């Protein structure tokens, strides 16, 4: 899969949520997620554990050009026992770090809008616009959301939560 994404700090979570609903995004619920990252040669490898016991193994690569708006290629597979997968991968590769968050999920066309409360970091948004059919449709949806959501250009983040936690030494 391929998507166009952006991430940033949120100063006013309620205003961001109201803007998401006002633009037509549909709230899907609140997810409790624990992402365990493993060191790999390139890209990112993590096991995501959901609060309901589900999990998946996720591998992704992102453009690393210093831009806040980046294309990402990713693949995922469901895990019957994500805790056991973490133990096996941790024993084989070591653990880079863990990110725990509460994610409020909204859907708009082919895009996901995340409002994340990340333990040790604070409140963030993520927009991920999937290139299901073609990249141009994903880009148009993405650009529309950038225009209607209260995104502060100075608050945009160009790295993963795990990187932010490493920088703050909270991993």
Describe this structure in words.
The chain has 4 helices and 9 strands; from the N terminus they run E-H-E-E-E-E-H-E-E-E-H-E-H. It is an alpha+beta fold and 171 residues long. The protein has a single domain, classed as Hypothetical Protein Pfu-838710-001 (Beta Barrel), CATH 2.40.320. Strands 1-5-4-3-2-6-7-8 form an 8-stranded antiparallel barrel, surrounded by 4 helices. The radius of gyration is 16 Å and the shape is globular. The protein starts with a strand and ends with a helix.
Helices and strands in order:
Elements lengths: L1 E8 L3 H10 L3 E13 L5 E7 L4 E8 L7 E10 L2 H12 L3 E12 L2 E8 L3 E9 L4 H14 L7 E2 L3 H8 L3
Total domain modules:
1
**Low-confidence parts, pLDDT < 50 over ≥5 residues?**
none
Taken from the alpha-carbon principal axes, the silhouette is globular
**Helix content estimate:** 25-40%
The CATH topology comes to: Hypothetical Protein Pfu-838710-001
The SSE string, one letter per element, is: EHEEEEHEEEHEH
- Per DSSP E runs of 2 or more residues, the count of β-strands stands at 9
The top level CATH class name: Mainly Beta
Order of strands, widest sheet: 1-5-4-3-2-6-7-8
Coarse structural class: alpha+beta
Q: In percent, how much strand structure appears in the residues? A: over 45%
Biggest β-sheet, characterized?
8 strands, antiparallel, barrel
* The CATH homology group name: Hypothetical Protein Pfu-838710-001
Arithmetic mean of pLDDT:
92
Which key features would you list for this structure?
171 residues; alpha+beta; eight-stranded antiparallel beta barrel; 45% strand; globular
């Amino acid at each position: 899969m391929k998507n166009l994404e952006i991430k940033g700090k949120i100063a006013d979570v309620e205003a961001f949520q109201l803007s998401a609903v006002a633009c037509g995004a549909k709230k899907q619920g609140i997810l409790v997620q624990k992402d365990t990252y493993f060191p790999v040669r390139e890209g990112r490898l993590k096991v995501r554990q959901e609060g309901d016991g589900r999990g998946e193994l996720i591998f992704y690569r992102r453009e690393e050009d210093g831009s806040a708006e980046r294309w990402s290629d990713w693949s995922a597979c469901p895990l019957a026992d994500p805790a056991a997968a973490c133990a096996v991968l941790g024993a084989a590769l070591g653990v880079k770090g863990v990110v725990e968050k509460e994610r409020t999920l909204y859907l708009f066309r082919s895009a996901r809008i995340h409002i994340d409360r990340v333990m040790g970091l604070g409140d963030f948004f993520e927009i991920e616009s999937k290139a299901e059919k073609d990249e141009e449709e994903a880009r148009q949806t993405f650009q529309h959301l950038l225009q209607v959501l209260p995104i502060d250009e100075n608050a945009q983040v160009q790295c993963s939560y795990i990187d932010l936690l490493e920088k703050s030494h909270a991993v």
